[in-house]
Amino acid sequence: MFKFKSKISLSILLALLFTSCAGFKVGDDQNQSEPEVEAKARVQTHLIDKNSPNCDDCIIGSIGDADLKKSGKKIYFLYGAEHLNLTNYYYDIPVVYNAAVKKWIKYFSGDRGGKHFQRYAERAGRYAPVLSKILNDEGMPRDLIYLSMAESGFQNHARSWAKAVGPWQFMPKTGTRFGLDVGFYLDERRDPLKATVAASDYLRKLYGMFGSWELAMASYNAGEGKVSRAIRRYKTKDFWKIRKGRYLRAETKNYVPKIMALAIIGKNLSKFGFTNVEFKRALDFEEIQVPANTDLYKVGEVIDESFESVKKYNPEILRWQTPPKGESYTLRVPVGKKDVWEEKRNDINILATNYKQYSLRGYASLYNVSRKFKVPLKTLTDLNGIAENKKLYPKTTVLLPFRDDHTQKDNRLYSDLYEKPRKSILRRRAYQKWIKRGKRNGKNIGSPSQFYTVKKGDTLWNIARTTGVNINTIIRSNYRLVKKRMILPGDKLAIR
Fold this sequence. Notes:
Number of strands: 8
Radius of gyration: 27 Å
CATH class of the largest domain: Mainly Alpha
Distance between the termini: 62 Å
Number of domains: 4
Oligomer: single chain
Strand order of the largest sheet: 1-2
CATH architecture of the largest domain: Orthogonal Bundle
Structural class: mainly alpha
Order of helices and strands: HHEEHHHHHHHHHEHHEHEHHEHHEHHHE
CATH topology of the largest domain: Lysozyme
Shape: flat
Strand content: 5-15%
Largest sheet: 2 strands, antiparallel
Number of helices: 21
Helix content: 40-55%
């Protein structure tokens, strides 16, 4: 159904656009499918056409009924909502008007959810047009921009508790799988263009697996394995029938209706009370080539811009410098600054040299330094040119990937290194420590004659106190159960 389109690298920059990108970096995954490998070889440069479709009463980036009918794509009519007298009724993904969708329409057009939708819609002015164009260039439905809206509200720096990042909320492994560089210096999940190409590839694959946009969207949220098992369990590929069962999480059950509600409101703003949306203006930019390991502070000094300004135009760069490896890096700068750069770039050394230095207090290796400063070991070995297990003597100087004038724990450039896990993750880690200790120290009850039925609110600790049985013995004797998960009401534990 879909064909890969070749990309032509262009240098013309239009004032409608915030971002640009150079290309995907080929990863080391040897188990990728053919489309994924092919996608990495494509040049990722997309520009917005001045003649891009307009949509009355829509967020910027949407396509209205008239243009959709002329697009040659398969389109879907919103049946059941004729009484609403909407401005636009056609979509290039299936959109229905049922109780689940109505619930989300009510939320996003109400007092609480309306504030969120207003912010999402305003951000759409900056990002949705380019996302829409890329989707269309990739042979995908333009209305999938509402999936990005549901995921992140069109924020490049959106980050979930599960470490999904960017406008399309890619998890690290999935992002890498679809050609995005996710490392210490770069996180291309934050780049709207590269991430949208990757999302197109992923959604294309999901649609190819299930033949249904509803199931493709559900899989984007829950994973293709989960949806495949749901199909086998309920013996249907009808998302709405699967949704009635208990197998999918509530989050996934609500995910597809939420996207549809955002699309309905997004194409009929005034009909749902959004008459004063002030769309953000896209940031125009130019591109310059800089060497590997370029200090962004020094780039800002050359072109008379702040570090924050340079970072704003390059959201995929995580630190204060471009990646140390490679011949060069394509950097975005504000319009008018390219000529300044060409004129003054040789005035100062722009390479990153201001690394923080750490002097060892005793014998150690880079492994020990890595653990102390929570920096990936490979980052330290590359930076210092020292083998990871080499014994280092006291007073040896080790370079750290922090700028010497930064306090790393208080600087948001390094916040990802020092963030504390959620309480649920800490509880799970503590639980696993107890299980390992119990397996190691407990006595196994070979032929149990007495069992305890777990009640609501029980923990292994209070069961041990109630029964007078050592907690390690309970763990060791019921290891097959407790190693997989925490105990639940109704579980039977051997205690004697």
